[in-house]
Amino acid sequence: MKLTFWGAARQVTGSMYLLELEDDFKILIDCGTDMDRQKGKKEKLLQPYSLFPFEPSEINVVLLTHAHIDHSGNLPNLIREGYEGQILCTSATLPLAHLLLQDSAALNQKLLKHIHSNGSRKKSRSGKKTKINPSELFLEKQVNETVDQFVTVAFNQKFRIKKGLDVTFIPTGHLLGAANILIEVEENGEKKRIGFSGDIGRNNYPLLQDPQRFPEVDYLICETTYGNRRHQAKGSPEEELATIIKEACIDIPGRLIIPAFSVGRTQALLYTLNKLYTNQGFPPIKVFSDSPLALQSTKVYEKYTKQLNEEAQAFYEEHEGLFDFQNLVYVENMKESRAVASHSEPCIIISSSGMVQGGRVEHHVMTNINNPYATILMIGYAAEGTLGRKLLDGMRSIRLANGNEIPVLANIRKTDVFSGHGDLDDLTRFVKYQSSDKLKKIFLIHGEYKSMTDFHAHLIGEGYNQVEIPEWGQSYTL
C-alpha cells in the first residue's frame, strides 16, 4: 500500500493523508483547510481546475479525526468536486463539524459579496491585503450535502469498511469527539496496522477524558504541535484563572479580554469559570461570551455529557448544567457585541477567534488595545502573522487600515493551561506505547518544522530510529 502526505506536512494546518491499498481502494484521512499556504512547488502538483492533488471522485472513504477546520474544512470542496462516499467520524464530531462548516460557509458568503464589490483582495484591520480564491469558497448548500454523507462510528468499536479493512476510533481528548484512528489492513495474507493521530490531547483537561492508550501498530503518523516544548502553567485551570481575574478585574477595576476558539476552548473556560463562581464564591463579575458559534457548541457539549470526564459528569448531575452561572451573558448579535464595549464595570469578555485574526474579538481588542486597565489574555496557539502572535511577540503599536497607529497600552498576558494539545511529554507518552523494535516507521506531521525536527531528535534519543518528516506530496510504500 502507499501513503501520501497531502497536508500538514512540515507545517501545522491542512491535515490530509491518502492511503491507497493494493486493490486501488483509496482512504482519505482528514481533509482540512490549509491556512499556511506554502507557495511554489505545491501549486505545480495540483490537478488543473481542482483544489486537490488527486481525483476526489476516486476516493472510496474518508475518515475524520475531529471537527476542527484544519482537519475538516475542505470536505465541502471534496464533495463539490465529486466525492460521493461516506465520511466516518464519531457521534459528537458530526454536530461540531456541522457547526464549524456552517460558520465557514457564512464567512465565505461575506467574502464572495466583497469580491463582487471590490475584487479578490481584502484588507485586514492591520491594512495588509490578502488574496482570496473564490473557487475555495463553499456555501451552505455544499455544507448540507457534506453532512448528509457523514456516518458516525462509536469509540473503541472496530468498524469494518470492507473485507480486509477495519478502522477503530480511539479517544484522544483535545476536543469533544476527537479520536486517533487505527486502520487494520489485510493484503496478500499479511496484516498491517497503521495509526493516525488526530490532535493528541492532554491529561486532566477541563471537561474531556484523558487520551486513551493507543495499541501497537506497524506505522505511526504522529502530530507535533508541541513537539519541542512543555506546558509552562503549573497550577490547575481554576488556580491560574483565579489569579489572573484577581489581578485584572478585582485588584483594579479593569476588563479581561480572552480570545478563544468557539469550539472547545470556550467551553473549557466557561466550565472553569462556573466552578470558580460556584465553589469559590468569586465576586459577581459579569462574563460576556460573545460568539453565537460558542453558544451552539456549548449546547452540543451538554448533549454529549456521557463522553466527558467523570468530574464534569458529576458536576452536571449536581448542578443540572455545566456552563450556566450567575452573571454569564451570551451575546448573540453585533448590536449587543458593540454594546459590551461601553460596559463600565469590571468584566470578562470571551470571544473568537483565538488568534485575534477575524471574528468579533478583533473589535474588543482594538477598542481596548490602548486601555492600560485592560488585559488581553492569550490562551492558545497563535500562528505567525496573526495579530495574536504579534501581541505575544511584544508589538508596541498597531497600524490601522487608514494609516494611523495606536499604541499598545493594554496588558498582554498568556497561559497555556487551557491548551488542548498535548506537550512534549504527552507526545512522547503516545509514541512510547509502541515497541521501538516492532514499529517500522514513525511519520511526523502537523507542526512547525522546528517542532518536528526537535521531536525527531528527541525520539532518536528515546530509541526510535525509523523517524521520517515527510514533505508535501511525498509518498511512502508501507
From TrEMBL:
<dbReference type="GO" id="GO:0016787">
    <property type="term" value="F:hydrolase activity"/>
</dbReference>
<feature type="domain" description="Beta-Casp">
    <location>
        <begin position="266"/>
        <end position="391"/>
    </location>
</feature>
<keyword id="KW-0378">Hydrolase</keyword>
<dbReference type="InterPro" id="IPR001279">
    <property type="entry name" value="Metallo-B-lactamas"/>
</dbReference>
<dbReference type="GO" id="GO:0004521">
    <property type="term" value="F:RNA endonuclease activity"/>
</dbReference>
<dbReference type="Pfam" id="PF10996">
    <property type="entry name" value="Beta-Casp"/>
</dbReference>
<dbReference type="InterPro" id="IPR050698">
    <property type="entry name" value="MBL"/>
</dbReference>
<dbReference type="Pfam" id="PF07521">
    <property type="entry name" value="RMMBL"/>
</dbReference>
<dbReference type="Pfam" id="PF00753">
    <property type="entry name" value="Lactamase_B"/>
</dbReference>
<feature type="domain" description="Metallo-beta-lactamase">
    <location>
        <begin position="13"/>
        <end position="229"/>
    </location>
</feature>
<dbReference type="InterPro" id="IPR011108">
    <property type="entry name" value="RMMBL"/>
</dbReference>
<dbReference type="InterPro" id="IPR036866">
    <property type="entry name" value="RibonucZ/Hydroxyglut_hydro"/>
</dbReference>
<protein>
    <submittedName>
        <fullName>MBL fold metallo-hydrolase</fullName>
    </submittedName>
</protein>
<dbReference type="InterPro" id="IPR022712">
    <property type="entry name" value="Beta_Casp"/>
</dbReference>
